[in-house]
Write a structure and sequence with these properties.
Length: 371
């Protein structure tokens, strides 16, 4: 694989490339991920990390206490070597086996109270850094779900996700950002790169939201959004509507059906507002939609952030904004193909669902800060 930026739309290509880079690592590997499960792909990746540790490559692994709850202890046991430092971001209060690896402060009762207080704050980022020279990011978790291995023996039945492999100067900034996360430092605005948006502690999460709004507000021609869980803040919704009314091409692809059952109902509660403002809305159902991408004029945004309150207020997130012409062109082509594979929602032909279920979407709005 050469230098630059490369998009990946299938889990097979993404994980094959990632494992190949891990196997070629010389000095350091950083892995930060929300879900790490020991299925087919998880065991393959963990074996690659074990091989790297056997070569004396230094490992830093950060997994989330909720997303990686099922196999967190097994992963920690297998990576319990002098070459690997593994931390768990906010383990569940009753997951005592991971307390000594907890990504937090205090001991004993203090740590237990911290676990309860931090229960709703998760590390949703997906990042792998190889030798400080290569970065992998996007929306892929380490789980067979993205392959649908549990329902089918591989094949073409995989989730709609997007990954990005990056080399070049921006990797230095991603390394710095991860070090700030690892050391629990908030950093300063002046030290953060213009090339990516990173949500961390409360102040940084608010800054991430503001940065996203600033990027969108500067759009001159188009904002094409593909997002798995659409539950926008009032300010984000207002920004999109204002841009559409000014004649910008604002288009939104969301799932017709989701792995989180109630989310399509919640997204549909916004449709009338979006359509009346001139925003084009499409429901995609060819695959499980899990991507979080945007095409903004001649730029592309790829990462982990959902357009919901959880991502914008509670969770740590990571997205890369790039003007690489090949990345933008490929993401634009994919969006246009996804539109063809979707159902367009219009005011004359709204998405119909049983009237008894509609109130659930509005009930979910009242709970949206926690969703």
């Amino acid at each position: 694989m050469g230098a630059g930026q490369q998009l990946f739309f299938t889990p097979q290509e993404y994980f094959e490339g990632l494992i190949a880079d891990i196997d070629n690592a010389q000095t350091t590997i950083v892995l930060e991920v929300y879900i790490f499960e020991l299925g087919i792909v998880g065991n393959r990746l963990l074996e690659a990390l074990e091989r790297a540790a056997a070569r004396r490559v230094k490992l830093q692994v950060l997994i989330d206490g909720v997303g990686s709850y099922r196999d967190g202890n097994a992963i920690a046991t297998r990576l319990d070597t002098p070459e690997c430092a593994l931390r768990v971001f906010h383990p569940l209060p009753w997951d005592f086996g991971l307390y000594r690896r907890a990504f937090g402060s205090g001991r004993g009762l203090s740590r237990l109270l911290h676990s309860f207080a931090s229960l709703n704050h998760r590390d949703h980022r997906k990042l792998c850094l190889i030798d400080g020279k290569i970065a992998w990011l996007g929306s892929y978790n380490i789980t067979d779900d993205h392959f649908n291995y549990r329902e089918a023996a591989g094949g073409d039945d995989y989730w709609h996700d997007t990954g990005l492999r990056v080399t070049g100067p921006v990797v230095d900034s991603l390394v710095t950002n991860f070090n700030q996360v690892w050391q629990r430092k908030t950093g300063s605005r002046s030290k953060r790169t213009l090339y990516f948006l990173s949500g961390g502690e409360i102040a940084r999460r608010r800054r991430h939201k503001l940065q996203l709004l600033q990027v969108l507000g500067l759009a001159c021609q188009r904002i094409w959004i593909t997002n798995a869980y659409f539950n926008p803040t009032a300010r984000l919704l207002r920004t999109l509507k204002v841009l559409a009314r000014r004649g910008k091409s604002v288009r939104l692809i969301v799932p017709e059906h989701s792995d989180v059952v109630f989310f399509p109902l919640l997204a549909r509660s916004y449709y009338a507002d979006l359509l009346q403002a001139g925003i084009q809305v499409y429901e995609y159902d060819r695959r499980v939609l899990h991507s979080k991408t945007m095409v903004i004029d001649d730029q592309a945004l790829v990462g982990s952030t959902n357009l919901n309150y959880r991502s914008l207020f509670h969770d740590r997130e990571l997205d890369l904004l790039t003007d690489d012409s090949d990345v933008v062109s490929r993401l634009q082509s994919r969006f246009e193909q996804d539109v063809l594979d979707s159902t367009e929602i219009t005011l004359r032909n709204p998405r119909k669902h049983p009237w008894l279920i509609r109130p659930l979407g509005w009930i979910a709005r009242f709970l949206r800060y926690w969703l």
